[in-house]
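Margin note from the TA: students keep mixing up input and output lines. Inputs are the sequences; the output is the structure of the whole complex. Example:
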Amino acid sequence: MSLLAAERFFSMLALVALAGAFGLVVLRLVPAGRPVLDDLGPAARWMAFAVAATATLGSLYFSGLQNLTPCRLCWYQRIAMYSSAVVLFVGALRRDRDVRWYALPLAGIGLVISGYHYLIEWFPNLETGTCDAFAPCSTPYFRGFGFVSLAFMASCGFIAIIALLTLTREPNSPGREGHHGNANDQG
Amino acid sequence: MATPTTKAEPKKNRTVLFIVLGVAAAIIVSGIVALLSSGDDPALSVGTVPASVDGSTPAATGDGVVRGEVWPVTIDGTPLPGLPDSGADPVIGTVAPGLSGFTFDGSPVVVDPSKGPVMLVFLAHWCPHCNREAPEIMQWKADGGVPAELQVIGVTTAVDPTRDKYPPSSWITDEMQWTYPVLADSEASQAFTGMGGSGFPYVVIVGADGTVLDRWSGEIGRDGIQARVDAALA
């Protein structure tokens, strides 16, 4: 696969993840969407893991196969995303609803860093007046569709993970599987 | 009590299945669209001059010269160590190496430190700071701020065909409106590394005696350049 094809593929996936997160917000705001969020609850951990795993594999693909050297801020986002993938996998496997307390801080930190990274890609003078010769943070390797950089993709991934872990709901307890209470408030 | 659970489970499973199928369909469609809408990545254009052509005179396409964005570069002398992040620069006052190479059309470009003073400006086409600093230098020239005895030579380096504003030949000429001679660095950016560069834009000023007078990395603007040049040549 060429870099251009990979760029477009992952750009579209990122936009799908962002649209999904937006869809969850809409479902949360519309009364008719609540049952859907209830139904999604138990699967949300696996979906969040799928997002983190896809982002992890995409990141490794770009650096390992396309030889795009990660910059300093990319590494910080990698730490957050790769850790999220592992934590979410274990959480999904154990059906541990408390996994959100471990995954959300990672995703939140990752979102802040990727948001800042995306900002300095458009306003490079906010950080420095120099482009590092090997892996400058302020210069994206590409901008899919004119705006989707790797930092933007990471932001989309983190937003989707946060949305999946905070907006979906689970039954209060296994013994009340048919009763859709709001488990978000109970961790 | 069991009845609600039995009714809810198939509905819940249908919702999850519907979403999973939707995501899978989005992934497949994304992959197909990406593969169909993109071609091969642009290739790096490497210039070559046949051995029969005398490198000391301008070459012509008819001589078998292949125009390119990167060209072989020869470093004559000891390469400079990297620019320190802070503190005094140890290479100030030491002899700078010479550079021999070509511009995009195969015409030779020679940087001979013994024929200084010369200011080498290393620019990367994809670097936003270079995209701001190069026009500043041209404006500095238009304003008459460049000392008459100072030669200015641009060096296009870190050339990457997959990044913004490739190819550098049209970028520096058409977009930057650069009118000074240009040395096209090699694929491995030998001129840049040989002069101790680590960031862009990168400037090295070599004096009339062939020694390094000043060097810096980063965008400093017209006034900043004027001040550094005036101090170096004073």
